[in-house]
Amino acid sequence: MTAKPKSTPLFLGIDTGGTYTDAVLWSEAGGPNGKVLAKAKALTTRHDLAVGISGAVDAVLEKSATDPAAIKLVSMSTTLATNALVEGQGGRVALVMIGFSEGDLARDGLKAALGTDPVVFCPGGHDVHGNAAKLDLAGLEAALPELGASVSGFAVCAYFATRNPAHELAARDLIREKTGLPVTASHELSAKLGGPRRALTTLLNARLISMIDRLVAATEGFLAARKIAAPLMVVRGDGALVSAAFARQRPIETILSGPAASLVGARHMTGLDNAMVSDIGGTTTDVAVLDGGRPRLDPEGATVGGFRTMVEAVAMRTFGLGGDSEVALEDGALNPKILLGPRRLVPLALAGMVHGEAVTSELERQLRAPNPGRMDGRFAVRTGVPERLAAGLTAPEAKLYEAIGSVPLALDRLLTSNAQNATLNRLVSRGLVHISGFTPSDAAHVLGKQANWDAATARLGAELFARKRDGRGQFIAASPEAISERVLVTLTRWSAEYILETAFAEDGLDGAATVAHALVQRAVDSHPGIARLSVALDRPVIGLGASAPLHYAGLAELVGNDCVVPEDTDVANALGAVVGQVRVSAEARVSQPQEGLFRVSSGETVRDFLDEAAAIAAAEADVRALAAGRAREAGTDSAEIEVATEFRVSTVEAQRMFIEAHVVAVASGRPRIAV
């Protein structure tokens, strides 16, 4: 009897962005790069992420006529964490600092990131060799009943926890016992020194847990409902894949997940080893460099939303510029410039499609007014997140939040004072409320270059914006079409500036933003001036994102090289999610706290040895075992492990003196698939 040939396994990629959720069905068969069998988009539904996911995936399954049981791996990338940090959103969390003083909050942007969230200081911590100071958690224990009722999670950072995590573990266990809430300990995220920046990374991780948890839960629920019994993977910020369970505990590592996946997808689709990659989404533009077929990684840690974290990620520069960026006007200028972002708005065209008359009737009312209003064309609407995430609101915040519902409410009806405007902005920052207004996506609808939402509503918004006045009291544009054209031209110019700024920064040049602005200005200026300036990239630009064919059409002449927009650019993230590999690492340090004593700090253990060689061997064995365990946890059963040891030594009177050793193990392999 002839055996039935095995069918080729299918891979499902999902990308949950700020505006759209993309899905792609891919097969390894069909050529050296495999084959995209079907792709689809659906609106991201922040109130219930499963709705957007099911819309995109169901469309893919229908287009390809695929049996869900044939899908053997599901992989997901997301820009939700990146967007949350760029927009200053996230859950309210408590920061626990052990062995630090209040003055440490002023370092590395920690105080700015903390905002109004509570912080608790406790005596304790360790020195550089892992020797402990006295730990006192009485103050923390006393504060837990109140904190447990007003925050969504905790972040714990202890002094030199990377050399000895014992005090973080004690605080973590106490918090979990008393509150049952999620706790992130800094040593779980980074082995690098620099307490305040490690605390910042831990704080941001704690803020993101509920968001990523909801995304993973929604995806798992959908897969179960469709009987897709395949492992679920998530793309990390360095482009590697990890299991959903791994990502749930360390959501900070998914910042730049979407852009990292897009780099993997860009390389896969174009075959270009060296390129600038610019990925424009609804909220952000992400620019990075491909060198030798691999994305450059940032050795100092990812910077997102103005905060430098300790997360190893692609050397990506993220700018608040996208199709759904807020369109504003420069204040106080005779000929005011168009300003874009960094905040994302719900486009009026989208609000009009979803809510119809509730939006259009208010825009028409504002157009009938004899003079333009400061809040024309702006609405507030709840995001629909669970009510528990609204914990800790002040009385003014709670009152305003109560007045806002699930149907957009015009701001000129909602707000009665400037103080309320500041209150509204705080609700937006908490992720509780969306603002709807005029965006580049609306401008594209007005000009007939985009047609997926309601163009009539977009035109009303453009007409209102065109009525704004310049410093001479004149309308800033003669028609909705004229203002829309200005907005799109501005977006392309800013895109070119950001790409050049990234290139200059990668070359180590100071003042990158200023130089980039000047060069693009001269490139488009009809009177370029006495000094002739020109610039050209040494590599092409790969334009990614659904709107890349529109916004990057005039990009090549501004950057001095080709702009390649691949056929499947609209699902580059989702495609990159399924063609990547699992990659995890583990680190250990060997120090010499006193002559003849060698201390190994690896994972959550600290051990002493009397012989250097024995300590190094133990450290290497530890990291190999840790990396193997993390690789299994991250979703691969076939990891290859490489171990590297770096020594710091000195020479005194021709004698070698050991100072420290840094041992790193890297495990990588393809994710396991369903059988």
Please, could you describe this protein's structure?
- It contains 21 helices and 29 strands.
- Strands 3-2-1-4-9-10 form a 6-stranded mixed beta sheet, with helices on both faces.
- Strand 14 and strand 15 (307-308) form a beta hairpin.
- The model is unreliable at 1-5 (pLDDT under 50).
Protein topology:
Blueprint: E1 10-16, E2 20-27, E3 35-43, H1 49-64, E4 71-78, H2 80-86, E5 93-98, H3 110-114, E6 119-122, H4 138-148, E7 153-158, H5 166-179, E8 183-185, H6 195-225, E9 232-235, E10 241-243, H7 244-249, H8 257-270, E11 275-280, E12 285-291, E13 294-295, E14 303-304, E15 307-308, E16 317-319, E17 325-329, E18 338-344, E19 346-347, H9 348-355, H10 357-368, E20 379-382, H11 395-403, E21 409-410, H12 411-414, H13 418-429, E22 433-437, H14 440-446, H15 455-466, H16 480-506, H17 512-524, E23 541-544, H18 548-551, H19 556-559, E24 563-564, H20 572-578, E25 582-594, E26 597-602, E27 605-609, H21 612-634, E28 640-652, E29 655-669
Parallel strand pairs: 1-4, 4-9, 5-6, 5-7, 7-8, 11-23, 19-22, 23-24
Antiparallel strand pairs: 1-2, 2-3, 9-10, 11-12, 12-13, 12-16, 14-15, 17-18, 20-21, 20-22, 25-26, 25-29, 26-27, 28-29
